[in-house]
């Protein structure tokens, strides 16, 4: 029999009947993953992460399959490993499908006050991040990453050029999955792609290399670029800066995929993109949505949300991304001028990174059809 809490001090009775101090138990624990709970959701004491997972599963009618024997570990660190076992544990601990439906009915019938935006940090932020993750995974699934005979060997200049062009194709496919991007005219889309292209290359190279425990940048064909690449001396400056200012901080902060895709969206929707001035307000609104979703995830959902100044430390990577991207763009332009790399067949790279007037765009659904000018 539990004694009532008096001014914050809780006393309970142990199994043998003696009272014991249970102040430490005043913090509720999620019945599904053991993380800090935020209340009772859909019939079970749970955290925001498991609450959102169960809600999305029911609303979107997801069907999960366990790849093992339906006894996967579901805890704070492994709750995303097997969605089937996580869902089963939600149901086992009291979460009800009808509670989700009743919540939707209440939201539908409620009178929503007028506002400039209807972006709710607790619900729409999670969906925003989920859509970014889907865009990232869909791009990886539909695009074939070529693995050459030189896989896991030191990269050559040809490997670097090929990998960069391939990543730009990935970027275009990724952007097409973003609903905000789809709402812009083709000229504005091209302006955003051109402005983001070098930053995309830098961010992808860094994040792809985080899991590799070596001082190396890994390319899309599995060739690697060490800090001092003897075969590609012209890219050593950029390689070293990516490793020092992005890979190492990402590794130290344990940057996860959801934080990564949110940062990509924040960088991508830049109203300063040349040629996108007419839609600057709408681009800024898209960036604000990305920032709100990023802040909500880092502060309330991420397993590392209690880390001091985590959001600030993650955002501090944005200036190095821009600075390194400028160096990369300069190197690509110099390589083109002096013929150090064979870029005549890399149409997309020329259109996005070597165009003299980056405010001009061709009305094509896929960039890369126009002739580019060599910088004079």
TrEMBL record:
Major localization class: nucleus
Gene Ontology terms for molecular function: DNA-binding transcription factor activity; RNA polymerase II cis-regulatory region sequence-specific DNA binding; zinc ion binding
SUPFAM superfamilies recorded: Glucocorticoid receptor-like (DNA-binding domain), Nuclear receptor ligand-binding domain
Entry's localization field: Nucleus
Keyword RNA-binding: no
Bias kind Polar residues: ranges: 13-22, 360-376
This protein's record includes keyword Lipid metabolism: no
Full protein name: Nuclear receptor domain-containing protein
Organism (species): Steinernema carpocapsae (Entomopathogenic nematode)
């Amino acid at each position: 029999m539990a004694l009532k809490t008096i001014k914050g001090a809780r006393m309970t009775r142990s199994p043998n009947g003696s009272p014991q101090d249970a102040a430490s138990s005043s913090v509720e624990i999620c019945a599904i993953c053991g993380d800090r709970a935020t209340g009772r959701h859909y019939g079970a004491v749970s955290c925001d992460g498991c609450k959102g997972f169960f809600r999305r599963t029911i609303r979107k009618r997801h069907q999960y399959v366990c790849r093992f024997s339906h006894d996967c570990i579901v805890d704070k660190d492994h709750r995303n490993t097997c969605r089937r076992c996580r869902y089963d544990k939600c149901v086992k601990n009291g979460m009800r499908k009808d509670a989700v439906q009743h919540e939707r009915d209440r939201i539908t019938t409620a009178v929503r006050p007028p506002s400039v935006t209807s972006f709710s940090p607790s619900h729409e932020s999670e969906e925003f991040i989920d859509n970014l993750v889907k865009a990232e995974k869909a791009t990886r699934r539909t695009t074939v990453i070529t693995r050459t005979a030189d896989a896991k060997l030191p990269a050559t200049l040809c490997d670097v050029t090929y990998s960069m062009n391939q990543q730009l194709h990935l970027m275009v496919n990724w952007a097409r999955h973003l609903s905000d991007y789809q709402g812009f005219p083709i000229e504005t889309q091209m302006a955003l792609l051109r402005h983001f292209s070098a930053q995309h290359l830098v961010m992808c190279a860094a994040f792809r290399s985080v899991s590799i425990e070596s001082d190396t940048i890994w390319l899309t064909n599995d060739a690697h670029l060490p800090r001092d690449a003897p075969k590609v001396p012209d890219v050593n400056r950029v390689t070293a800066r990516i490793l020092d200012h992005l890979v190492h901080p990402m590794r130290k902060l344990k940057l996860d995929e959801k934080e990564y895709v949110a940062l990509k969206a924040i960088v991508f929707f830049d109203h300063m993109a040349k040629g996108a001035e007419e839609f600057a307000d709408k681009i800024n609104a898209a960036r604000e949505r990305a920032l709100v979703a990023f802040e909500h995830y880092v502060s309330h959902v991420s397993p590392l949300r209690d880390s001091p100044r985590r959001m600030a430390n993650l955002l501090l990577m944005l200036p190095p991304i821009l600075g390194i991207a400028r160096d990369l763009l300069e190197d690509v332009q110099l390589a083109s001028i002096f013929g150090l790399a064979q870029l005549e067949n890399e149409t997309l790279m020329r259109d996005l990174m070597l165009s003299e007037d980056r405010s001009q765009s061709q009305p094509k659904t896929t960039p890369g059809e126009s002739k580019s000018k060599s910088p004079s």
